[in-house]
Write a structure and sequence with these properties.
By secondary structure, the chain is α+β, with helices and mostly antiparallel strands. It has helices spanning 3-15, 68-79, 90-98; strands at residues 20-24, 28-30, 35-37, 46-50, 53-59, 83-87. It has 3 helices and 6 strands. The strands form 2 sheets. It has a 4-stranded mixed beta sheet with strand order 1-4-5-6, with helices on both faces.
């Protein structure tokens, strides 16, 4: 399964969970205007709120590698009280988000 299809499957599964909302966080540069967009280099693919807590999910295929910048973002989210992790499956994503449940 491609990363895009995995991300779509994760978004669909999380949208079905009461109290959880996630959004795609595209990160990049509009080279025509020189404008950066997204939360920043390394920020998670999916960001949202689960039962009042910030959630960040880095979506990777089974063989996908997490960059140093991505690891730093996930660590920062956790340090500030959010829930974050690498999701390589829908089950991974649901388990990560479940950590936010009161």
């Amino acid at each position: 399964m491609s990363e895009r299809h995995l991300m779509d499957s994760i978004r669909a599964a999380l949208c079905a969970v009461e109290g959880v909302r996630v959004w795609r966080n595209n990160v990049g540069v509009d080279t025509m205007r020189g404008i950066r967009y997204g939360l920043g280099v390394g920020s998670p693919d999916l960001v949202g709120i689960a039962w009042g807590r910030f959630v960040g999910l880095e979506v990777k295929t089974v063989t996908g590698r997490v960059s140093k910048e991505q690891t730093m973002w996930l660590d920062m989210v956790r340090r500030f009280g959010g829930v974050a992790g690498v999701a390589r499956s829908v089950e991974d994503a649901l388990a990560i988000v479940e950590e936010a449940r009161p």
